[in-house]
Design goal:
The protein has about 100 residues and is mainly α. It contains five helices and no strands.
């Protein structure tokens, strides 16, 4: 039995498509065919095409292998690296240190 497809928010869908376009552009700049990149990343051509279309059903492992084939795997360190909202929420929950009262 298959799971029902869940829709992405439109902004997320646009970002995924833009990521796919950037990956395709990186492949073309390197003058690699789909077949060559698929072989280097150990994925099938249809899977690579899905990734280049922005299809987020492709696994993170496939994305990592494609970035590795481009020597861009360091970009994985940038994902969720700057979590300003999370840091502010954590700071808001951190109790303030108690001050000792001084004798008058």
């Amino acid at each position: 039995m298959t799971r029902p497809a869940r829709q992405l928010f439109p902004a997320t869908e646009r970002r995924a498509e833009a990521l796919g376009a950037r990956l395709r552009a990186a492949r073309l700049r390197r003058r690699l065919s789909e077949t060559e990149l698929a072989e280097r990343a150990f994925v099938s051509r249809p899977t690579l095409r899905k990734l280049e279309r922005g299809d987020l059903t492709v696994s993170a492992a496939v994305l990592a292998r494609v970035l590795e084939a481009f020597s861009l795997d360091g970009d994985l360190d940038l994902i969720a690296a700057n979590d300003e909202l999370g840091n502010r929420l954590a700071d808001a929950r951190t109790p303030l240190p108690h001050r000792r009262r001084t004798a008058e």
